[in-house]
Amino acid sequence: MKLVPTSLLKNAAIAGLCLAAMNGARADAFAQAVLVVDNFRLLHSSGAAFKSTDFTMLDGTNSAHATASLDGVVLAAKPQNRGILSGTSPDVAHQFVGLPNPPRAENNFTAFSGPPPVPGTFGYADQNMTGSAMTIGTKEAGVRAETRADASLATDGEAAGDSDVGTSTSFNFTLGVGETMTIAFDGTPFTQAYASTGAGMETNAIARLSWSMNIMNMSTGQVVFAYQPGELNSFGNVSRTDSFPGMSTYNPGKMSFSAVTPWLNKVDTYQLTINQTTLANALQDTVAVPEPGSLAIFGLGLLGMSLLARRRK
């Protein structure tokens, strides 16, 4: 009987065991949410932008926050608050945990190209806001508010990454002349969720957006106007799970929005509030059960080790 060389048996055994390890069950999860609101303005019925001088009383703040986390490690930017008449707007530093580090440069609101493969293992959040909803002095009206959140898991085992970011504007005002107010802006929403085939139990990816505006009459406590377009809210909520793997994407492109408030008098004080939030969450709970192919390769590895032991005897 012709004997197989010892070196060949040894190499075959090692290769078999390595391939088995490499081909174990793997689950990846990824979610990203980006919302860009541009040229947001408060307009008279004539179409001209409101000026700060059109109000007999006007004060309030623009606020922003960003939080990123991974496996229980949480990084949160110190919330920023800027007066609406201050001439400055919040720009929260991007927050990130994991690798690559950082996943995106500061104030980069371009979505990742769709997985697979996922772009890393991290939680990420960023925010930026410029401009004003009304004309202040010589500065023309027009707000650009950008928010993004990403959660990416490219590792086996149990891990969680989530990220959220928000911009909020709230101010009180009394009009100099009673009239309606028109809200006009452009919005570009993008959400994407991915879970790999063969993902472990409870693996999921969720991406969602939220944008809303309301006006409350501070004298009566009643909400007189509420606007929450579905294209920037429920339509953009996407998810994938271990029982429904693959990728879901919401990418309608740039859209224009407008709405007209009821009559606002010049006597009462009103509070206008705008909230913009993006959130991404990924959870991976992988049970390390080898696939059939892995078991076969692992068996070859063990057989090689067995033959090697017999030869030594």
Automatic annotation (TrEMBL):
Organism: Massilia violaceinigra
The keyword Transcription regulation is annotated on this UniProt entry: no
Domain Ice-binding protein C-terminal: 288-312
Keywords attached to this entry: Signal
Protein name from the UniProt record: Ice-binding protein C-terminal domain-containing protein
Pfam families in the record: PEP-CTERM
Signal peptide: 1-27
Species classification: Bacteria, Pseudomonadati, Pseudomonadota, Betaproteobacteria, Burkholderiales
